[in-house]
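User: Show me a protein chain along with its predicted structure.
Assistant: Here is one chain, sequence first, then structure tokens.
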Amino acid sequence: MNRWLKKWLNSSASNADLPESDDEREKIAHNALVLVATTFLTKTADSLASPKITLTWLMQSLGASPAAISLLVPIRESGALLPQAALASLANSRGRQLGLYRLGTLAQGLAAAGMLAAVAWLDGTLAGWAVVACLSVLSLARCLCSLTHKAMIGKSVPKGLRGQTNGWASSAAGLATCIVAVLMILLQGAPGIEPLMWMVAVAGLSWWLATLLISALDEPEHKPKDTDNQFWQRLKLLRNDAQFLRFVIARALLTSSALVAPYYVMLQAGTDNPLAGFGALLLASGVASLVASPLWGRLADKSSRFTLVLSATMVTTLGLVTVALHLSLPDAFKHGWLVPALYFGLELAHQGIRVGRKTYVVDMATDENRVDYVSVSNSAIGMILLLVGLVTSALSALLPPVTLIAILSALSAAGAILGRTLPNVE
């Protein structure tokens, strides 16, 4: 066994339910490494082809329709979550989810290639709508990957190691994001859209590499489930399982950590080099993932509930500090370092929420119902994200960014309070 993997397993033995057999431990270490490497590639691709920044800037440069641009984030976020309750029947009908995951990563790479073709061959308005169509395909494919990935990690990696597996992957992806951010800063506002197209191209290649790499996973096979009339039965989990319903409500409140991010960016003063300004924010996000994700992962393996509460409290505290600074020292936001520093803190907390809620739902479920729990919670969150996103979008025309930061930080505080009532599942 690789010395580093053996050391990692031994150091985690007190938290993980590890088998005694060296062969079984070898298998767990192998699967963990494959999942870390694959997730690193997909998370890096997500950062490079982000609709919040990269695709928005690309479509603005093309002169795409504002209506098309406004659809990017809602399609990307809700499209990756809403269909999961329906797709769960497809996943449950198979003894292994590996093939479905490979289909999802392959399709995401093809969608990225389609975006590049649209930019290269079509005019502004038509190209914009073609990018939206490709993003719809990408979002559905990511939905399939999100659903099957949690099922695979639940079967392949025992409790006590799942949070660290997700954490190390996020950390590695953070390093890749930092490298891209530094390149953006060094470009000094290079003309044209070529840098953004290269980012989308590398994202597509990363998804295709993930398609090849995940094939090395030694996924245990389970008996397929009968999927007749499972869709409506699956939705009844929200009514019949009080613990699960409480988790979904807490997670819904904690989506504020993602929705609040654009309003921090709006506080940043204008710059003569927008590409470098983008690089500074991307660097803050990458460093946060690099530093925080492994620590959050280890903490989540001990108590994912505490991880959720702590990170949500950080989001709330950061919001209070931001509002206080804006009211007492508004000129401070003219300094180029303040908003990236605040964004760094927000990303630290957001990584904790992501790792904590993923670990909680995987550990709360069993091999028999994990796909159901994940799919129903993600579909519910997808609907809530779409609705809350539309509401905050409408409010942004009436309220300043700092007020929206205060509102969303209050939602995070409510999520932290509700999270305290969740039982431990480790």
